[in-house]
Design goal:
This protein has eleven helices and two strands. 36% of the residues are buried.
Amino acid sequence: MDVLHFLFGIFGNATALFLFLSPTITFKRIIKSRSTEDFSGIPYVMTLLNCLLSAWYGLPFVSPDNVLVSTINGTGAAIESVYVVIFLIYAPRKEKAKILGLLTFVLAVFSIIAFVSLFALHGKARKLFCGVAATVFSIIMYASPLSIMRLVIKTKSVEYMPFFLSLFVFLCGTSWFIYGLLGRDPFVAVPNGFGCGLGAMQLILYAIYHNNKGEPKRKVNNDGSMEMVGETEKAAYRDPAKHQPNLMNKQVDEKV
């Protein structure tokens, strides 16, 4: 049983590392376009909080025999910090203010939990307090892509829900769920069981809408000719008032 528990911990570390690295494709696109487009920064900030709390929970003086939990989440916290910084650099002013506010909240929450658990609690009380905190925010982390899932259903496009991110959410949640069951640790099993289910839902959505990734579509002009329309222009035709400056700039460029 101990060997199996250790093996699932190793597998959990591997899948979690792929999960943390899977958004690199998204951030390459953000850096190349110098824009966060319709990508949300909330999942990365919430993942950062989850990694910090889980790494703290896995430390020997909080939860014995959970070093594998601590090592991978410490690595994840470093990776997520890089993502958040990149997002803040390229995000619009309004989105940047929102993410900065959320990041401040995340760091404050972690600091308070670490301080209280270190100086006010001991033994089982410390493990219970840190375990509950890690569980709550792990569930919030796994739930944070719900807004993207809603966008997928609304637009019938998976353009802003990367496949590999969804895949590794499922694999990571499943492996740590089994790890928690084998170790009889509900603070590991419960949130990752939730993540396993949510990852499965994302994969189902991807299977349904994977043929529509926001590719350019054709628009019929008044003279009967056809031209390609990108995502921004499609949105503009759906909501002219919101995107009117973009269309006007395009028309001016064409005249020049």
